[in-house]
Amino acid sequence: MPPRWSWAAWTPPTPATPPWPSGGRIRPRRSGQTCPLGGFLVKADSEGRPGPFTYGRNQADGANMLADAVAPCGGHIVWRCFVYNCQQDWRNTKIDRARAGYDYFMPLDGTFRDNVTLQIKNGPMDFQVREPVSPLIGGLQHTHIAVEFQIAQEYTGQQRHVCYLMPWFRQILDFDMHTRPNGDAHVRALIQGAGNGMVAVTNTGNDENWTGHDLAAANLYGFGRLSYDTTLDPAVIAGEWLRLTFGNNEPVEKTLHRILMQSWPTYEKYNAPLGVGWMVNPNYHYGPNVDGYEYSRWGCYHRASFDGIGIDRSPTGSDYCHQYAPELAEMYANVETCPEELLLFFHHMPYNYVLKSGKTILQHIYDTHFEGAEDAARFYDEVVTLKPYLDPAVYARLEARFAHQKEHACEWRDVINTYFYRKTGIGDAHGRKIYE
Predict the structure, then answer these.
(1) Reading across the β-sheet that carries 6-10, which strands appear in turn?
(2) Contact 74/114 with Cβ under 8 angstroms?
(3) In this structure, what DSSP letter does residue 14 have?
(4) Which of 48, 134, 193, 434 is buried most deeply by CB count within 10 Å?
(5) CB 148 within 8 A of CB 111
(6) What's the whole-model pTM score?
């Protein structure tokens, strides 16, 4: 994977006179004093790293200590909310890593200094191909926040598979948290204003084309465009980027635009189904491994048995759903109203449960994985037709990447489908090949 760092797009708060909204005080910058550094991004108490918890303190204690230190020169602390207890027990169905960010930070709302911004991942877990929007984004009312996206495709193909993420980012920005009864509570509105913003883990590295995949730069460009205008249409952004990158070449633009816009849904088809996530090889997070994280200290992510799959986050399980506003909590807690793309994130369901499509969950798993592999094969065939229109070096890189994706999508299909066939003993209704 290419190196990872954060690219922030937020407006530092304008110095004000006490009392601060957080109740803290910031010393003003002395006349003539300059500071070559704007601030710090801090990751603490995460993945075994030390932090305030190590010393018996809370996250506000840690952030405010650093905020006070940089305040004299107008510095800012961006404090990541990627904090959770990684010493979990898979035997305990009430322990839920998804709850951690909200549980740790919500009681501290209003206690952070005004030169602190809490950086919150777009979902409660870790940039899966599909997650609900983090409840912490809507919950915090008296603290500066920035929503964190991931341009680097850590769990979405690592720039070896094409996966244009702007449609997903736009869905997140458009999501209504229902936490402002008399105001706009869409994510895009919650991150407006001084001290708030949106942030991304970028995908640039040492490759000749910067991002490993010639189409992956569309995510870098797209995030930049959305950070300045959160209402932009991802299809329009894709068209802009293609013309800027490949020129006014109609066959190239038309073909690659179609591939970009279909790429995220395609990746989701052959990845983990219905929001369950995490069916990847541990550590490097590339390639299918259904039980890779299932019995680890990080938690339990799908709890697949012979008769069902999914995590119960309703009141009968971890009750994560009630970290949301009542309108959303009620929707997620009810199997009938929970969005189906997140059904297995919120509920443990029998394989024979019938979705709105008329298919059982098991048949949906089989069908989507076959369809995803077919989509990837079609992407390759379409890219091959562009050889006469592309620079030879660019075409060679694209052909190699799409050939790999075509093959690897089949690996995802066969591993996932075989796993569930072995769990259930139920074959594909259409008689397609599933390995034993």
Answers:
(1) 6-10, 197-201, 144-150, 116-121, 76-80, 39-42
(2) no
(3) P
(4) 134
(5) no
(6) 0.90
State the DSSP code for 110: T
Measured distance CA(292)–CA(85) in Å, rounded: 19
* Catalytic machinery residues: 47, 126, 154
**What DSSP state is assigned to residue 91?**
T
Q: Are 322 and 139 in contact (CB under 8 A)?
A: no
pLDDT at 87 over 80: no
Give first-to-last CA distance, the chain, whole Å: 32
* Run of H or E including 407: helix 392-424
Give the C-alpha separation, 343 to 107, whole Å. 29
Q: What is the pLDDT of residues 316-346, one digit of tens each?
A: 999 999 999 999 999 999 999 999 999 999 9
Q: Report pLDDT digits (tens) over 240-296.
A: 999 999 999 999 999 999 999 999 999 999 999 999 999 999 989 999 999 998 888
Give the number of residues written for the chain. Answer: 436
CB 174 within 8 A of CB 187: yes
291-295 long-range Cβ contacts below 8 angstroms, 24+ apart: 294/90, 295/90
Cα separation, 277 vs 294, in Å, equals: 11
For the chain, counts of helices (H) and of strands (E): 12, 8
H/E stretch holding 198 reads: strand 197-201
